């Protein structure tokens, strides 16, 4: 699938901008829509002048109109860092609910395929490990993470309703912790925090005792998986992430080793409802997409820390 006209909401965000780059590289034309509350035009370096690229500064929680034909609508707009959950909770709920409704409406009007960026957060603090797509999750709707988790759960529900009720052609991906170049230095998530802290010789801020686990996916692997799902016939949801699980403490040690930093470890309080463990079951992704991740955490961290140190991508 190439030579398509694709709308990417959140196109100036971390994942959205990588997606725009990959779509342009394969010959698609891209309309990126972003309100820039967490995205940045800096993320569009190298593509903003591309002849097949258009940027629209707009909030998809409001009405969204894109002139001309559209083959696919990829809804990636949403703040996704836990530090944003307290800072901009209403915007997160709105983009997951109203923004999803508006972008579904756009896809329906255009007869386009719809692709929803959902999240491992729909599993909450999971009691089933690793998490298969069949697990319904363990989410606290009232806690600080509920604004993101429930917005994305609603987004999945309305996407499936459009699919069943209107016959809309949809895909749903559940994205697990992803990292790489173009994360904001102040994004607040663990990989960027640790790398930025290590490079500056500042203390590494471990939440709790650091024994909680995550499974970190390098952005190039992630985007390859997203495009494989977009091009497939499978509705989803499909987990896309990396199956190798690390404690936060192990991540800190790796970052220190890779950057050669002598930063000390600082143990801070653990955020409310911080999931204790997370690892994707990738059986479905392997069987329906023939996709698997290829970049190890060591390799991905080396690339990402080179980028944060002012080097190039890759
Ligand atoms: N974390 C940490 N130090 C930080 C930022 C995050 O120890 O400076 C922890 C966080 O509490 C969580 C894990 O790292 O247990 C992953 O956090 P992140 O914000 O990257 O994403 P999450 O998976 O929680 O959405």
Automatic annotation (TrEMBL):
Coiled coil, from the record: none
Localization, UniProt: Golgi apparatus, Golgi stack membrane
SUPFAM superfamilies assigned to the protein according to its UniProt record, in alphabetical order: NAD(P)-binding Rossmann-fold domains
Pfam families: GDP_Man_Dehyd
Domain of life where this protein originates: Bacteria
GO molecular function, one term: NAD+ binding
InterPro entries (UniProt xref): NAD(P)-bd_dom, NAD(P)-bd_dom_sf, UXS-like
Cellular component, GO annotation: cytoplasm
Keywords: Decarboxylase, Glycoprotein, Golgi apparatus, Lyase, Membrane, NAD, Signal-anchor, Transmembrane, Transmembrane helix
Cofactor(s) demanded: NAD(+)
Residue span, NAD(P)-binding domain: 8-303
Similarity-based family: Belongs to the NAD(P)-dependent epimerase/dehydratase family. UDP-glucuronic acid decarboxylase subfamily.
Name of the protein: UDP-glucuronate decarboxylase
């Amino acid at each position: 699938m190439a030579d398509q006209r694709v709308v990417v909401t959140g196109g100036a965000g971390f994942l959205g901008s990588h997606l725009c780059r990959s779509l342009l590289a394969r010959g698609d034309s891209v309309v990126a829509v972003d309100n820039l509350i967490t995205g940045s035009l800096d993320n569009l370096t190298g593509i903003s002048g591309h002849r097949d690229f258009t940027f629209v500064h707009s909030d998809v929680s409001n009405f969204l109109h894109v002139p001309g034909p559209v083959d696919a609508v990829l809804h990636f707009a949403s703040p996704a860092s836990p530090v944003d959950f307290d800072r901009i909770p209403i915007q997160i709920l709105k983009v997951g609910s109203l923004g999803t409704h508006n972008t579904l409406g756009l896809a329906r009007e255009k007869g386009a395929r719809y692709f929803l960026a959902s999240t491992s957060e729909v599993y909450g603090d999971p009691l089933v490990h690793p998490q298969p797509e069949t697990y319904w999750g363990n989410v606290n709707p009232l806690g600080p993470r509920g604004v993101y988790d429930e917005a994305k759960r609603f987004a999945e529900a309305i996407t499936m309703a459009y699919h069943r009720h209107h016959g809309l052609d949809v895909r749903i991906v559940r994205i697990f912790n992803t990292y790489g170049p173009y994360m904001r230095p102040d994004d607040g998530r663990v990989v960027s925090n640790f790398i930025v802290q290590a490079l500056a010789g500042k203390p590494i801020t471990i939440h709790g005792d650091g024994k909680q686990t995550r499974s970190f996916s390098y952005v190039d692997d992630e985007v390859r998986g997203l495009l494989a799902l977009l091009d497939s016939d499978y509705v989803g949801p499909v987990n896309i992430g990396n199956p190798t699980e690390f404690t936060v403490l192990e991540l800190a040690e790796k970052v220190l080793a890779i950057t050669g930093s002598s930063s000390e470890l600082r143990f801070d309080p653990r955020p409310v409802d911080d999931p204790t463990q997370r690892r994707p079951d990738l059986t479905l992704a392997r069987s329906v997409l023939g996709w698997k991740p290829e970049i190890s955490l060591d390799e991905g961290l080396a690339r990402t820390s080179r980028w944060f140190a002012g080097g190039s991508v890759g």
